[in-house]
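[User] I have long wanted to understand how a fold can be written as tokens. Those tokens are not coordinates but codes from a learned vocabulary of shapes. Could you go through the record with me and say what the backbone is doing? Thank you; the sequence and its tokens follow:
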Amino acid sequence: MEVNFDEILKDDAFKNVDENKVAVFKEIADKLEGKNASESMRILLEYQYSMPQGKTVSAEEKTLMLNAIMKRLPETERIRFSAILKMAGVIS
């Protein structure tokens, strides 16, 4: 069952996140639509490396985004994505 990203963004946890960051999160989520775990990781890395100098995402914001992304993945891809994130040292 696919989870709608707009519904995820209504969660109270996103209320304190800058609206520009939320817009980027939504853009990323749209690009990840239908992608497998490896493709998703590549897209996330592209965004990470293309962020303007001085712009950062807090650990809490990163966790929110990754959790939102994983909610949208089928279970097998969620497991793969989590494993890739662990191998890359993004999550523990």
About this structure: The helical segments are 5-9, 19-32, 37-50, 59-72, 75-87. The first helix runs from residue 5 to 9. The radius of gyration is 13 Å. The chain has five helices and no strands.
